[in-house]
Amino acid sequence: MVDGDGRELDQGRFVVAESEGGTILGCGRLRPYPDFCEVASLAVDPDQRTNGVGRAIITRLLELYSGDVYLICEDHLMDFFGRFGFRPVPVEDMPPGLEPKWRHYESLTGSMNVMLLERAQAA
Length: 123
Ligand SMILES: CC(C)(COP(=O)(O)OP(=O)(O)OC[C@H]1O[C@@H](n2cnc3c(N)ncnc32)[C@H](O)[C@@H]1OP(=O)(O)O)[C@@H](O)C(=O)NCCC(=O)NCCS
Description:
Elements (H helix, E strand, L loop, with lengths): L12 E6 L5 E9 L4 E8 L8 H11 L5 E5 L4 H5 L4 E3 L9 H11 L3 E5 L6
Parallel strand pairs: 3-4
Antiparallel strand pairs: 1-2, 2-3, 4-6, 5-6
Coenzyme A (COA) binds next to β3, α1, β4 and α2.
């Protein structure tokens, strides 16, 4: 992402990955919306990438919520998120709540994708 999403940080569900020595390796959060959550604020320390930290964070986030999960990402991350079952959604089908954020990043990058991990809603 071009910059971070700092909105509604207090309501998010955060996951922070640390080394055994307590060094922060990466983080991510679920940003809540009325009918779904969004994976947001996902980042791994550049020196720690491709070591499985991102996978561990996403796996934990998906354990924290059992409903539909959306995200907004650049083209080069679609394969990464596809590994977790996220599928591209036509932008005209995105939930209205995501649109302002998508428009913001789309205007910055010129190409932003919406992806969905569709799951049974929580009981
Ligand atoms: C995207 C990001 C979180 C991935 O974190 P990571 O710790 O490097 O990811 P992992 O090592 O857990 O990767 C899991 C798998 O995806 C693969 N992968 C990693 N980055 C990938 C990419 N950009 N495209 C495709 N596959 C990728 C890994 O090789 C690994 O494959 P494996 O399971 O077969 O070994 C990290 O690159 C990052 O912080 N990027 C900058 C911030 C960012 O773009 N955040 C997302 C905003 S939407």
